[in-house]
Amino acid sequence: MKKLKLLIADDHQLFLDGLLSLLKTEKSFEPPATATNGNRVLELLQKNNYDICVLDINMPGLNGIETTRRIRHEWPEVKIIILTTYNDKEFISEMLLAGVSGYVLKSATKAELVNAISKAASGGTYYSSEVQNSIMHDYLGKIKKEKGASGKPVVLTKRETEIVKLLAREYTNDRIAEALSISYRTVETHRKNIMQKTGAQNLAGLVKFAYAQGIIS
Predict the structure, then answer these.
(1) Would the pTM of this model clear 0.85, i.e. be above it?
(2) How far out from the chain centre does Cα 157 lie?
(3) What does the pLDDT read at residue 137?
(4) Domains in the chain, please, with CATH?
């Protein structure tokens, strides 16, 4: 089994050393490379093929936000996890829009970080519970404003609700069609209607809506 190649960036060497000590026992990872700023991250990516970048937000020179944008543009296949103390909705929204696969707080356990890395490597996403709460709180506020403006809550049909649940589990349209015994075209139609009803611009927005409405937990 191929081991994951990690690149971890944080401007505090003591924190980096502690993180390396924690992760060195993980058999599914190669010994991680490290950097203390975003510019060094980009230099290392030009020379090596990494699977996952774990980045802090507050770094000298090129910060985590700009580093993420550069990576997504130049190395779109590389997954990015943010590991930070910041739980501000502005930072979270910025990183979600930039396309990160995970957002983990530094108060997390080793098991949580390893889980986040594993999920990102398999194409999934992971957000700390505190981050999820922040996302839902922000989205609930938007839903309430929209509902107050129109006076009408968003109502999904039973079939649409089933499809939303499967989308949240990262099912493709093909898998949804197979799971629900319907055609691919029917799934596409339902999905289009769902996005129009909820006002979601992408899958992340739809998942936020589903959390806010209690469709998924």
Answers:
(1) no
(2) 27
(3) 61
(4) 6-132 (3.40.50.2300), 154-212 (1.10.10.10)
